[in-house]
Design a protein that fits this description.
The complex is a heterodimer of chains A (about 220) and B (about 400).
Chain A: E1 4-16, E2 21-33, E3 37-41, H1 48-55, E4 63-68, E5 71-72, H2 78-88, E6 89-92, H3 104-114, H4 119-132, H5 148-160, E7 166-170, H6 178-195, E8 199-202, H7 206-211, E9 214-219, E10 222-224
Parallel strand pairs in A: 3-8, 3-9, 6-7, 7-8
Antiparallel strand pairs in A: 1-2, 1-4, 4-5, 9-10
Helix pairs in contact in A: 3-4, 3-5, 4-5, 5-6
Chain B: H1 2-14, H2 16-52, E1 59-62, E2 76-77, E3 90-104, E4 109-117, E5 131-134, E6 145-148, H3 149-154, E7 162-168, E8 174-186, H4 190-195, E9 196-200, H5 201-208, E10 212-213, E11 215-220, H6 226-236, E12 241-244, H7 245-248, H8 250-287, H9 290-298, H10 303-336, E13 340-341, H11 346-351, E14 357-358, H12 364-391, H13 394-400
Parallel strand pairs in B: 4-9, 6-8
Antiparallel strand pairs in B: 1-11, 1-12, 2-10, 3-4, 3-7, 3-11, 5-8, 6-9, 7-8, 13-14
Helix pairs in contact in B: 1-10, 2-8, 2-10, 8-12, 9-13, 10-12
The chains are: A alpha/beta (about 220), B alpha+beta (about 400).
Bound molecules: adenosine-5'-triphosphate (ATP) and magnesium ion.
Magnesium ion binds next to α1 of chain A.
Chain lengths: ~220, ~400
C-alpha cells in the first residue's frame, strides 16, 4: 500500500443546537493516497464543502479524526493549524482567492513570504509557477485586471508553489464558462501529473469530474457507494 | 513585517476615498484643537500680562499695613537695603509712592490714585507703553502731572491747565497741592486712563514729606519662580510685607488656572469625539474587507499578523493626519499672527482683564500632549476594527464578506 495524503476516520460534523442538530457529515471515513486526483460529488447540501473545511483545518469535526500527511489535525492548536495550512495545504475557492492589492506574482510570493523564504528565491519560484500555468506576461497584473480564468490559474499557482501535501478546491469552476473550465482542469491535471500534487476537489460540474481519476459521492453527509 | 507594512500601505491607497475622508476629519479636529488651544493659551498670557504688567509685578513688597489701609501713613524708609533684590531670578524692580487722592479742576472733581514713579525703572509696567501727548515723566524730579485722556476729558481740562490735588499725609495731615498738566497719556485700556495720575517719585516725596516708598514691584524672569522668590524675600525682610501677584489678584489667578484646566478638557473632549467617529469609520472600512481577511487566514496568515495589519493601517492614517493637522494648525496660528481684533467687544473684554486683541500663544507641552494623545487614541481606536476581523471564524468571514 502506498503512502496516504489524507485520511479521515468516522468524521461527523453537527451544526445547530442540541435540540435541532443539523448533520453535515455523518461518520465519513476515507483515504486519499499521495498523487491522487479525487473529486467529491453529490447534491447540494450533502456536505462537500464541510468535508473540505474539516480536512483543511478551517473548522473542527464534532467527532472523528483527520490526518494530513503525518499530522493529526485534532492534536493541533489553532495556531498550529494555521501553520499546517501554510506549509502543507493549498486552497482554491470559487472566487475571492487573491489579494486585491497585490499583483499576480506578489500573490504567489505571498505564501513563500509568510514561510519566510528569501526574496530572490521567492521571486524565482513564483515566476516559475506562473509560467507553468500559462501566465507568462501577466506577472504584474492586479486581480482586477485579469479574467476569471486567469485569476483561478494564479490561485492554482499560489496553491502549488510551496509543494503542499494536498490541494483543496471547492467548486473552483463555478464562475467559469465551459471553455475556461476545460483549460482550468487541464492545468489542475498538469499540477497533479507533472508536480505530483494530490488534489481533492468538491464539484457539481461533470466536466471537472471527467478529469478526476476517482469520485467520492456524498449523500446526506455519508459516503454513498 | 515588511509584508504587513506593504499590505497596509496598499490597502490605504486602495480605499483612498474613504481614508481621505477619515484623514480629513482628523486633520480638521487636530488642527482645530491645536488652534483653539493656542488661542486659549494666548488668552491666558493676556490675563497674566494684564495682571502683572499693571502696577503689580510678580511680587510686591509693601510697607506693613499697606494692604489693609493704602495711603501715606505707612512707608518703606528710603534707606532700606534693597540690595537683596539683585538676584538672577529678578529681571527688574521699581519703587513707587502711591496715595489715594482727590483731583479737582475748575469744573469737576474725581478720585484717583497719585503715583510717584522712577521712570527709568518702569520698563515692565504699562507706563512703558503709554502714548503721551505733551511731556512724559522722564525723571524722578519731574514735578508736573501726567494724567489719562479719559480723566482729562472728565475733568474738562487739558494740557497746560492747572489741577489741585488733595491727599491725606503721613500724619493724617491734609495736603493740598497745585499741579500743572503737562502730559496726557493714552493707554490700551481706559481703566488706566481713569485711575492713575503720575508724577516724579522724588518730587512726590518732597510734597508729601514721606521719606520712602509705599511699595516696590518686582518683575521676574520666569513666572514659575514666583513663590520660591517670594519665600526667600519674605524671610530676608520680615519687617516688610512680601506678597505674590496671585495673593493680590485672586481673580486672575483663578482665571489662569481655569484656562489651563479648560485647555486639557478641550483636548479630551475633541479627541474623544474624534475617536468615536474614527472607530466607526475604521470598523466599516474593515467590514467591507472581511472576506479578504478570511482568505488571508485560510492560506496561513496568523491572526496576529492580520490584526497587526489593521492596526498599522489605522496608525499610519492617524500619524499622517496628525502631522498634517498640526502643520495646518501651525499655519493658521502663523496666519492669525498678532491676533484677532476684538475691538468690537473691547469694552466688554477689557473689564475682564484682556487686551483688545486675541493672540495665539504656542505651548510646547500642549503640542506634545496633543501628539502623544492622538497616537495613543489611534492605537485604541484600531483595536475595535482589528477585533472585528478576528472575532469572526474564518468560515464566517468567507461567507459574510
Ligand atoms: N455554519 C453552518 N451552520 C448551520 N448549518 C450549516 C452550516 N454550514 C453548513 N451547514 C449545513 O450543513 C449541510 C452541508 O453543507 P455544505 O455546505 O457542506 O454542503 P455542500 O455539499 O457544499 O452544498 P453545495 O453543493 O450547495 O455547496 C447543509 O445542510 C448546510 O445547510
Ligand atoms: Mg459547497
Amino acid at each position: 500500500m502506498s503512502e496516504l495524503a489524507v485520511q479521515t476516520t468516522d468524521v461527523t460534523r453537527i451544526y445547530g443546537s442540541e435540540a435541532v442538530p443539523v448533520y453535515a457529515l455523518r461518520g465519513v471515513s476515507l483515504s486519499i493516497e499521495v498523487g491522487e486526483f479525487v473529486s467529491i460529488v453529490g447534491p447540494s447540501g450533502s456536505g462537500k464543502s464541510t468535508l473540505l473545511h474539516v480536512i483543511g483545518g478551517l473548522e473542527r469535526p464534532t467527532e472523528g479524526e483527520i490526518t494530513v500527511g503525518d499530522t493529526v489535525l485534532g492534536s493541533c492548536s489553532d495556531s498550529e493549524l494555521t501553520d499546517v495550512r501554510l506549509y502543507k495545504m493549498g486552497f482554491v475557492f470559487q472566487a475571492y482567492n487573491l489579494i486585491p492589492v497585490l499583483s499576480a506574482v506578489e500573490n504567489v510570493e505571498f505564501i513563500l513570504q509568510l514561510q519566510g523564504i528569501g526574496k530572490r528565491e521567492r521571486r524565482e519560484h513564483a515566476q516559475e509557477a506562473l509560467r507553468a500555468f500559462g501566465l507568462e506576461g501577466l506577472f504584474d497584473r492586479r486581480p482586477s485586471e485579469m479574467s476569471g480564468g486567469q485569476q483561478q490559474r494564479v490561485a492554482i499557482a499560489r496553491a502549488v508553489v510551496s509543494k503542499p501535501d494536498v490541494l483543496l478546491a471547492d467548486e473552483p469552476s463555478a464562475n467559469l464558462d465551459s471553455e475556461t473550465t476545460k483549460e482550468f482542469c487541464e492545468y489542475l491535471q498538469h499540477a497533479n501529473e507533472e508536480r505530483g500534487v494530490t488534489i481533492l476537489t468538491a464539484t457539481h460540474d461533470p466536466l471537472v469530474m471527467g478529469y478526476t481519476k476517482r469520485q467520492i459521492r456524498l449523500v446526506d453527509g455519508q459516503i454513498a457507494t | 513585517m515588511y509584508l504587513v507594512l506593504q499590505l497596509a500601505l496598499r490597502n490605504i491607497w486602495r480605499q483612498r476615498r474613504r481614508n481621505g475622508l477619515v484623514l480629513f476629519a482628523i486633520v480638521v479636529s487636530v488642527g482645530g484643537v491645536f488652534v483653539m488651544n493656542s488661542l486659549a493659551r494666548g488668552m491666558e498670557q493676556d490675563f497674566l500680562r494684564f495682571s502683572i504688567e499693571n502696577l503689580r509685578g510678580h511680587i510686591k513688597i509693601l510697607a506693613p499695613n499697606q494692604l489693609d489701609e493704602p495711603g501715606l501713613q505707612y512707608s518703606i524708609p528710603i534707606d532700606t537695603d534693597l540690595s537683596l533684590l539683585a538676584r538672577p531670578e529678578i529681571e527688574s524692580w521699581t519703587p513707587r509712592l502711591r496715595s489715594p487722592a482727590v483731583i479737582m479742576s475748575e469744573r469737576e472733581t474725581r478720585g484717583v490714585e497719585i503715583i510717584g514713579i522712577d521712570p527709568t525703572r518702569e520698563s515692565h509696567s504699562f507706563i512703558e507703553d503709554l502714548v503721551v501727548e505733551g511731556e512724559a515723566i522722564t525723571d524722578t524730579d519731574d514735578q508736573h502731572l501726567l494724567i489719562g485722556r479719559s480723566l482729562a476729558d472728565e475733568l474738562k481740562t487739558g494740557l497746560g491747565r492747572r489741577l489741585v490735588v488733595l491727599m491725606t499725609g503721613p500724619d493724617d495731615n491734609a495736603i493740598e497741592i497745585g499741579f500743572r498738566v503737562l502730559g496726557i497719556f493714552k493707554s490700551t485700556t481706559s481703566r488706566y486712563e481713569d485711575a492713575y495720575a503720575l508724577t516724579g517719585l522724588s518730587s512726590l516725596q518732597a510734597i508729601t514729606g514721606v521719606d520712602g516708598f509705599t511699595d516696590v514691584s518686582v518683575y521676574l524672569e520666569d513666572l514659575a519662580t514666583t513663590s520660591e522668590v517670594q519665600a526667600t524675600l519674605a524671610s530676608q525682610i520680615p519687617e516688610l510685607n512680601v506678597v505674590t501677584w496671585e495673593q493680590l489678584d485672586p481673580f486672575t489667578s483663578e482665571m489662569y488656572r481655569f484656562i489651563g484646566f479648560t485647555v486639557y478638557i478641550l483636548i479630551v473632549v475633541f479627541l474623544g469625539t474624534l475617536v468615536f467617529g474614527l472607530i466607526n469609520a475604521l470598523v466599516t472600512a474593515v467590514l467591507v474587507r472581511i472576506r479578504e481577511f478570511g482568505m488571508l487566514r485560510v492560506v496561513g496568515m496568523k491572526s496576529r499578523l492580520v490584526v497587526m495589519q489593521v492596526v498599522i493601517e489605522c496608525v499610519i492614517i492617524m500619524l499622517l493626519a496628525l502631522a498634517i493637522g498640526l502643520a495646518a494648525g501651525l499655519l493658521v496660528i502663523w496666519w492669525i499672527g498678532d491676533g484677532i481684533d476684538l475691538t468690537a467687544f473691547a469694552a466688554g473684554v477689557e473689564a475682564f482683564g484682556m487686551g483688545a486683541r486675541m493672540a495665539p500663544h504656542l505651548v510646547v507641552d500642549d503640542f506634545v500632549i496633543l501628539g502623544v494623545a492622538s497616537v495613543i487614541l489611534g492605537l485604541i481606536a484600531s483595536y475595535f476594527p482589528a477585533r472585528r476581523v478576528i472575532k469572526a471564524s474564518i468560515l464566517q468571514s468567507l461567507r459574510d464578506g
